[in-house]
């Protein structure tokens, strides 16, 4: 049957990262021993005390609609978190809760973009930015960053792509897929440039909890009042507390008027984030045990990062930067991928030959690279990279 789709959704592509995870899961369900490096979520369970708080909320009858912008006590706790952790002074009325960072981004683009507005996306980029922008008539503009600089964005990278149609810049540090962070100097230069040119910044800080080598995450909006006035600080409970399935994200807005619009969009679409899930999120902010859990995860990821980078560096012709954050590595497989029609065919070869699932770089705007998440045990990481090594030897 021919589908009668709107022009807007006709070109929409499904998330390739979810697709590769689904393919690996499908093979595993058939009893095939696949090692998956595709997942974009921590392999830790949500802490028990967070689950208990949501269960208690359910038992206490917190099963009805909640305010569209989020539970007042959660917005208050988030304003406190922004102050304490990020050094940003948001009022609770400037904070909105929605269904994960993904939906927050969706609503911000819906709120800001008119037909033909350009959005700068430092590349490699997280997969959903581009598709969301296009849905709302915006034009995603890819801004390549340099592998040799660890994909860390500079003002010089951006400038050639800025014109009078530029409306928004997306910053995502630590970055998915590269794990890159940004220096304080460079962030200040970029932020000041955006202030002058009146370009909004969407600062996606979902991986803020995961930085390594003693580096501390720096929030864009903490750089001063002028910067805060153009910045949306996007975050979520998903990665920080291993709560990806809970669907609780939040944003700090330049002022309460923007926050109201986002809450109104919630009210006309999802109504509110699942009420008892918000009580779980509140517990994550309030219970001091949560920070110990996050630190344990962070240390585990840092150790695994060292392991996976050292194993990848043993493979001839594979180049890999040591990421400074998040839980991904983004190696350059061009020598091998160029033997195939494209890098999708290359990753399919690895799935068939080595039974290892990785995500092709083209999904992130960088053909010939691939993203590997290290949300796996040390044993799986070791076995998986060895399998890749053997499969690549066959191509030499
Ligand atoms: C950079 C980035 N932003 C946003 C999201 C979406 O997060 P959430 O699960 O809270 O919607 C992800 C998830 O993979 C991400 O990597």
UniProtKB/TrEMBL annotation:
Pfam family, one: Aminotran_1_2
Occurrences of domain Aminotransferase class I/classII large (ranges): 33-388
Key words, A-Z: Aminotransferase, Pyridoxal phosphate, Transferase
An individual GO BP term: amino acid metabolic process
GO molecular function, one term: pyridoxal phosphate binding
Family stated for the protein in its record: Belongs to the class-I pyridoxal-phosphate-dependent aminotransferase family.
Protein name (Swiss-Prot/TrEMBL): Pyridoxal phosphate-dependent aminotransferase
Organism: Aquifex aeolicus
